[in-house]
Write a structure and sequence with these properties.
The chain is α+β, with helices and mostly antiparallel strands. The chain is 41% helix and 32% strand. The chain is built from 6 helices and 12 strands.
Length: 296
């Protein structure tokens, strides 16, 4: 009977030794790239057609903030631009009379020059004609300058209105809530009909197709790890149920940190570890926060 007890003890010791050998080199939790979508304008949320768990595509419109006041301001500015355009002077018509007077004065000057040269008219008449031409030329230059200044001022006012319209159209565009990336709606912070202000978080999206496992390794294990390395990743469902995935090391931390309490490394005596990220293509079974293992 004593031999049986001894053999049983040996068997238990061998089984314990066999179970102590780990099938992984590092463990961690699965994470996803998360994006929080914020309101870019203030107003009532007229529509918001997403729910937690929905899959959304990139640049998908999921909501709309009230645009009434912005649209009215655009209409007002467009009317103001039309007023500016109507106030622009018709330079050709407004200086036509002065040009005609100047042309006639120049003809008189030429005629008196010929008469004075022939001795048929006194030189004073030529001097008066030259003076008249100079006066009319100055009047024409002053009219052109004044009308040009007025035209430039109205053009600048129109350009300023165009800039304001562009700003309002940008605000109008930002009233349309558009997803910046594809993924799954993880959290929804507001509901349709609520008033939202600029900067208020609306929802959180996570890319659950291309996930990664954040694991921790010791400095001794770093010599066996490099970027782009293919490794085996196991999703741990509990009760010994695991599923294997192909993973790629995409990031290795350049700084060490103290071992997180929830992480078990291959060398549990090490106080400092390095974080790594292993990219995994999710087939729908891996969830955010699930524990996983890495085999180098």
């Amino acid at each position: 009977m004593r031999k049986i007890y001894v053999l049983s003890g040996v068997a238990l010791m061998m089984a314990a030794c066999g179970n102590s050998e780990k099938e992984y080199d590092a463990t961690g939790t699965f994470e996803a790239t998360e994006t929080t979508l914020f309101a870019e304008q203030s107003g009532t949320l007229l529509t918001f057609s997403v729910n937690e768990g929905d899959n959304v595509e990139t640049h998908a419109e999921v909501g709309l903030i009230d645009t009434t006041q912005i649209w009215l301001k655009i209409q007002q500015l467009n009317a103001t631009k039309e007023v500016y355009q109507s106030q622009k002077p018709d330079m050709a018509r407004q200086i036509a009379a002065t040009r005609q007077q100047l042309a006639k004065a120049q003809q008189e000057q030429q005629r008196y020059q010929e008469l004075v040269a022939d001795g048929a008219a006194p030189s004073k008449m030529l001097d008066d004609a030259i003076s008249q031409v100079k006066v009319l030329q100055k009047q024409l230059d002053a009219q052109i300058s004044s009308l040009s200044t007025s035209t430039r001022a109205l053009d600048k006012q129109t350009a300023a209105a165009d800039i304001q319209v562009s700003q309002l159209r940008d605000q109008l565009r930002k009233c349309h809530i558009v997803t910046p990336a594809k993924g799954t709606v993880l959290e929804k912070y507001v509901e349709r009909g609520e008033f939202v202000s600029t900067g208020k978080p609306l929802l959180k999206i996570g890319d659950t197709e291309d996930m990664y496992l954040r694991a921790y390794v010791t400095s001794a294990q770093l010599q066996n790890i490099k970027l782009g390395q293919q490794v085996k990743v196991f999703a741990d469902y509990g009760d010994g149920q695991k599923k294997e995935y192909q993973g790629t090391v995409t990031w290795i931390s350049s700084r060490s940190e103290f071992t997180p309490k929830t992480i078990l490394t291959d060398d549990e005596r090490a106080d400092l570890v390095y974080a790594i990220k292993v990219a995994v293509r999710n087939d729908g079974y891996v969830k955010i926060g699930m524990y996983g293992e890495v085999k180098l």
